[in-house]
Amino acid sequence: MNQKEAGQLLDKYLQGKASQQEETIVQSWLMNQTARNHAEETPDEYILPSEMWSAVYQSIHQKKRRIWPRTVIAAAIAVIVFGAGLFYYNLNIDRGPHDQAVYKNDVSPGKVGATLTLANGKKIRLSDVANGAIAKEAGIIISKTADGQLVYEVKENNAETGNTNTLTTALGETYILTLPDKSKVWMNAASSLTYSATLGERGGRRVKLEGEAYFQITKDKAHPFVVESRGQTVEVLGTHFNVNSYADEAAITTTLIEGSVKVTANGHHQVIKPNEQALSSGGKITVRTVDVEEIVDWKDGDFYFNNLSLRNAMRKIARWYNVKVVYDASVPEDIESTGYISRTNKLSSVLKLIEKSGDVHFKIEGKTVYVSK
């Protein structure tokens, strides 16, 4: 691939016109350039200047059209193509015999799907019902939209209170929910949210979360919005935040995108600001500054690993592809993963990108991924 062809491909990607194969090529380069920029042994002429790299990364990650002049983008491509030689590094989709053997049982990515449990115990598989109204319960109309979202509307002033619904995503599923108060919730895989069907109509707004969800809460100063999860509560008036409360994670993490939230656990309180994350573990709460894009990557349909622990990365991957991960004893605990790739790719594409670090190797057998040194 020459410089002109590389530029044309990058342009197509930034304009959202690239095919899935072309997206994989760009994303593959992105992961390798990230790793190469952080590698101490990399020669200087192979490293994209930090200012240029940041802007190109932002363009690609946000999929915006060029935010830099063409001459600068061309210079970046020149480094990529002729300096590091990373842009098209043997990612021709024709796989060799080794890849075909290791990845012969490839796994498709997750999809939009969830199960709604009504107050009367009835379960509705949302992928099995047509768009439009799917249930009416105590003065509430529950509808499924054409783009795969669940929406609640209060149709009667005398709608009954106390009826609770639960929306559950299985491994490999994600869903978007609009609550009766117009708050919006993005649910990650293997998660559930329990809430009142008349939430916000009378009194407080309280939900219970297991797993992970991103909340976009409608402002209502008179009725705080409260999220309960594994002994922790998050109280807000109106804001955007992410809560990760998976049982297999070491701590419950609450990450604030905008506004203000109060996190409470075991009698301890912490108020966090945008770009801060509260970690709740052992009854204690600690706060740190984070890159929120790393936290909400799943909501945007991506995997974004920025020096993330390999085991943390693999837990995210396992939930989305509904696979079990088995580690060989030779795999160190402190290996990190760096890179960015869409969650629409098949499992083998994601694993091959991680393998490019040279630290680990993968083999897929059925629904199990084996990790070795």
TrEMBL record:
Presence of the UniProt keyword rRNA-binding in the record: no
Top-rank taxon: Bacteria
Pfam short name (any one): FecR
Keyword flag DNA repair: no
TM regions (residue ranges): 67-89
Protein FecR C-terminal domain: residues covered: 302-371
Gene3D superfamilies, per database record: 2.60.120.1440, 3.55.50.30
Residue ranges annotated for the FecR protein domain, each copy included: 166-262
Keywords from the named record: Membrane, Transmembrane, Transmembrane helix
Molecular functions per Gene Ontology: sigma factor antagonist activity
InterPro entries with a match to the protein in the record: FecR, FecR_C, Ferrdict_sens_TM
The protein's name: FecR family protein
